[in-house]
Amino acid sequence: MIDGVKNVLVTIPQEGRDEDASAFGYGLSLARHADAHLTVQAPAGRFHVPYSVLNAFAQKIVSAENRRIATLAEHFADVAKAEADFAGVVCTVESPQLYYQDLLNRFIAQARVHDIAVLNAEPAATQMYWDLIEACLFGSGRPVLVVPPGRNDFACERIIIAWDGSANASRAVADAMPFLKAAKTVAVVSVMGEKDLSTSVPGTDLAPHLARHGIDVTVSDTTVGLKETVADAIQREAAGFRASMIVSGAFRHSRLREWILGGVTRSLLESCSLPLVMSH
């Protein structure tokens, strides 16, 4: 039983191509374990091309594609509702057809009133998926749980915390507390060598805090190996620990006043084979 999670949001934007449904399966499984309400968004991305630059034939093609994607979204929403009902999970579904920015705004609005948002992590993620992840991390004030392909069942028996003593890592630990409390064991891992952690809060200071919450916790440091990145080192430690989930703070860089994901954050999202709980 997962205590402290009562509203789970799953968003699967329909873009007219084959969609991986891992986020829905994982979110449904999480909602069942937590006895939580599940909200499923299956918005249809609406193509917008000014009619002034299209001839009549092109206008028909765009309209037909918008109708096709809307039909896919409605079908996914119907299937999701049926599966949730069968699993005994109270579920709300929606499949609005929205232009790009309206889709992001709707997602942020919903994420702000849910405990956690669940999204797919795709090997070749589209810009829309990156924008959804960034919107949740940096615009909703809520954590995001990113699910790689093939992970359809929620599990949190063994959790790795990627700890660097930062405020972002602390926020991620706080947001992931329902999962950490339900875990059989938790490992706090700090990756040395990529940046100076000598003045940061060490993992040995985090451990007593977690232990007072009844969490079985260990602490270790690792270094970045030859030809490894920090993300590689985290995943190596997670594999050795047989982790079922990774908890990490999310970082961003500013470029021309546009927020973009930091290097370690993006690398984890692109290559990790485990569900990631991230907060900023």
UniProtKB/TrEMBL annotation:
InterPro entries: UspA. This is Universal stress protein family protein. Transmembrane segments: none annotated. Residues 157-278 form the UspA domain. Gene3D superfamilies: 3.40.50.12370.
